[in-house]
Each structure stands twice: as C-alpha cells, then as structure tokens.
TrEMBL record:
It holds the Pfam family DUF1501. It comes from the Bacteria. The lineage of its organism: Bacteria, Pseudomonadati, Planctomycetota, Planctomycetia, Planctomycetales. This is Sulfatase. Signal peptide: none annotated.
Length: 453
C-alpha cells in the first residue's frame, strides 16, 4: 500500500536484477509469478495498515455550498441580525430545535436528520479549500483545489481494492456532474482502473450494459480468447496502466452483465423499505433511489460509493433567496435518515462510514433579496457509522457563523480521519509519480481524534 518505485516498474527491476546475477533464478521466478498474479487482479482486496473501524464508505456531496447557518450550525436571528444595518447580518432563516436525546441543534430544513442526530457527529469547524465552486469541490474530493490529483475514491480503490470483482470498486451515482466535472472522480496519475464509474439515475443506470443471454457460453468462449490475446499483448507493456485498465474494464463489464442489473434492481425491495426512504414504486431518478442503491452497493462489497446531490445547476448556491434550500433539503432529508436506519437494522452501520459534505458554507451577511454569498472560512459536514462517535458536535463557530473559534478542521484533516477509520495511515498511502511520492493529504493532515468512537 505504501507505494515506492517498485510499484512503478517492479517487473522491469526484477528482470534487471536477474541480468546482474543478483538473485538466484528460482527466487526470481517466484517473485515474477507473484508479481504476475498481483497485476492480473489489480482490484483484489488488500490488507489495511491496521484494524479498520469501517470497511466501505458512502460519500454524499451536496453541490453549491449548503448554508451552515441555516442547517447544522443555526444562529439566532435576534440581537439585530435581521438583515438591516451596515453589515446586513442575518441569522438562521429557518426555525431550529435540539435533538431531545443528544442536544444537537438542527434547523427545520432537516427534521428527519435532526431525529437521527444521536448517530451523527457534526463538525461545525470545517474550513474549505477555496471559496470558488470548482476549486472548492475539487479540493474536497482530491485534497488539491489547484492541481489535478486523484479523487479520494480512487485512493480507496488503490489502497484497499474491492470485495466484489463483479462490480467496480468506486461507483459515483450522479444525475448531473458537480462543479469540477469528472475531476471529482478521476484517478489522475493512479492506474486508470481506480477511476470512478459514473452511474446516471434512470431506467438504465449503466448505459450499454446488456443482460446475459442464452448465448452466454459462446460469449464466454469469445471473451476467454480475447482475454488471452489481451494478456499476451500486455506482457511486454507491464507499465502501461491505461492498457491494463482497459483490459480489466472488459472483464468487469462481462461480470456486470449479471451483477449490475441485480444491484440496481431497487424494485425488488419490499414496500416497507420504499416507505422508509420515501421512494415511490417505479421511481429511478430521485435522491431516495440513490440512497437505496448506495445501501445495495455497500451490501455487495463496493468499497467506495459517492452520491452527488444535484449538479452545477440548480443547486444549493442560494445567492438571492435562502428559501431555495427548502425543496433541496426535502429531497435528501428523509432518504439520508433512512439510509442510517436501514444500515443499522441490517447490522451494516458499524462497518459503513457515511460522510456528508458540501464545498463551503454561506456568509452570515445578507446578499441579494434574502440570500447569502460564498463562505469558506467555516462550514459544517457530518459523519456517521464506522468508528464515528455519534450524538456529538465537534468544533465551534462564533455567534454569527463567520469564523471558527475552536477545533478547526481542514480538508486534509477530514481526509486523514476518513482514511484512519478505514485502517489506513494517511502518511503511508503514497504513489510514486513524476519523481516524488504523492498522497491524498499531500504533506498535511491530522486525524481528528475527538470524533472517533
């Protein structure tokens, strides 16, 4: 998992060592055989650095910049914060109250999630990587707002592999692309088979995926021959990750002819599940559908699942009117709360990490008629499940929601903590590229111990 130059050209180095008579041929043969087995199954499950709290992750990203003040870090509208005056300060537009079991305050935009707060840790002291949509969204996903880097899902796939070889290790369910486009799920310099596979909600989530037919035996023979030819072509090109990824994609695509349709067959869920998520029969496009699919994919061993809530427009970027948050919140509130309850009742909650995030928060000052501007100095994210201490709030902002006053958490810290929960030391998950070792957290990041169970 800790990559070194050996990962780049291990086979070439071993052959060079044989040429220099450094190793006995028998030992070299064993090493080459081991290397061949590894390269033939690049997505095989890999051991973590230490015992993990979680085995898989569901990452929910709400595009546009959700207002922390009007959701998970509510601020009073009293004391002159009525949109008047020089600074035009504006407290929470929506009423709020506390969860009766743990005391965490949440506005009325999220009544279902408020009722689930005893299972959720809210970080109110998050600091964004940038105040621009694209840079902040890419930064939240890759750790770098300015340079192309692999997505966190790709790092998961590279470091841990997957449990299910019949489905991709990293799946992104996205009706529309967020700011930053495909960069949010790219593998960049990591081997290409670690790139996220995008699924578009609808009647055919994975396009051009044909179910197996009565001609299956013939198809298997054809693909077997193709695989043999592909491997012969790959042997002298072991360092060509793009070619290896393309070959791997053929193999996965064949297996997905059976596994894919079954995994996305939400119609097979019972009426109780549909009602819990607020999902209507036959609906294949709502966020509720995305959440049910996320649970089904986690159930089937997909390592990293991302749900994109809305695209670049319309989204949570409420510059002119904060009431634009209302329908967006209604679409995700019940399904997210149901996802937590569903995982718990299936004994999957403790091994599945759920993270909800957005690119930044909104200003405490009024903008437009009744909206807010971009605010990267502080905002809220929340985590639940695998190894997270539920029912707590970490960090604190000032009384108007403008600045962090306690326990700042930046994007690198969040990533370091997520990796830690998956059993990975973020300083050791590296990949050699362009003459240096890269990692998701670059040269930064600290595990936020205070939120760990």
């Amino acid at each position: 998992m800790n990559s070194s130059p050996l990962n780049v050209s291990r086979r070439t180095m071993l052959r060079s060592m044989l040429g220099g008579s450094i190793l006995f041929p028998g030992i070299l043969s064993e090493l080459l055989a081991e290397d061949a087995a590894r390269s033939s199954d690049p997505l095989a499950a890999k051991p973590p650095h230490f015992a993990p709290k979680a085995k898989q992750m569901i990452f929910v990203f709400s595009t546009g910049g959700v207002s922390h003040i009007d959701t998970f870090d509510p601020k009073s509208s009293k004391k002159g914060r009525d949109g008047s005056g020089k600074d035009k300060l504006m407290g929470s537009v929506f009423p709020y109250s506390a969860n009766k079991r743990c005391g965490t305050e949440v506005t009325d935009l999220f009544p279902h999630l408020r009722d689930s707060m005893e299972d959720i840790c809210v970080i109110r002291s998050m600091q964004s990587a940038h105040f621009d949509h694209t840079e902040a969204a890419v930064g939240m996903h890759t750790g770098s707002p300015t340079f192309a880097r692999p997505s966190i899902g790709s790092w998961f796939s590279y470091g841990l592999g997957t449990f299910n070889q019949n489905l991709p290790s990293f799946i992104v369910v996205a009706p529309h692309l967020p700011y930053g486009g495909t960069q949010v799920y790219t593998s960049d310099f990591l081997p290409a088979y670690h790139q996220g596979t995008r699924v578009i909600p609808g009647e055919q989530p994975i396009r051009n995926l044909l179910a197996r037919t009565k001609q299956q035996k013939i198809q298997e023979l054809e693909l077997g021959l193709t695989a043999e030819l592909n491997q012969n072509h790959l042997k002298p090109r072991q360092d060509d990750s793009a070619l290896a990824a393309r070959i791997k994609s053929f193999e996965t695509a064949f297996q997905m002819q059976t596994a894919g349709p079954e995994a996305f067959d939400v119609g097979s869920e019972d009426n109780k599940t549909h009602e819990m998520y607020g999902l209507k029969r036959g609906d294949t496009k709502s966020f509720a559908w995305q959440c049910v699919v996320a649970r089904r994919l986690a159930e089937r061993g997909v390592r990293f699942i991302e749900l994109i809530d809305t695209g670049s427009r319309p989204n949570w970027d409420s510059h002119g009117e904060m009431k634009e948050h209302v329908p967006l919140a209604k679409a995700v509130d019940q399904p997210l709360s149901a996802l937590i309850r569903d995982l718990k009742q299936r004994s999957m909650f403790d091994e599945t990490l759920i993270v909800w995030a957005t690119e930044f928060g909104r200003t405490p000052g009024k903008e437009g008629k009744n909206g807010r501007g971009h605010h990267g100095d502080c905002f809220s994210v929340w985590l639940a499940g695998g190894g997270i201490k539920g029912g707590i709030v970490h960090g604190e902002t000032d009384d108007i929601g403008k600045s962090i006053v306690r326990d700042k958490v930046d994007v690198h810290d969040l990533h370091a903590t997520i990796l830690h929960l998956m059993g990975i030391d973020h300083t050791q998950l590296t990949y050699r590229h362009a003459g240096r070792d890269f990692r998701l957290t670059d040269v930064h990041g600290h595990v936020v111990d205070g939120i760990l169970a």
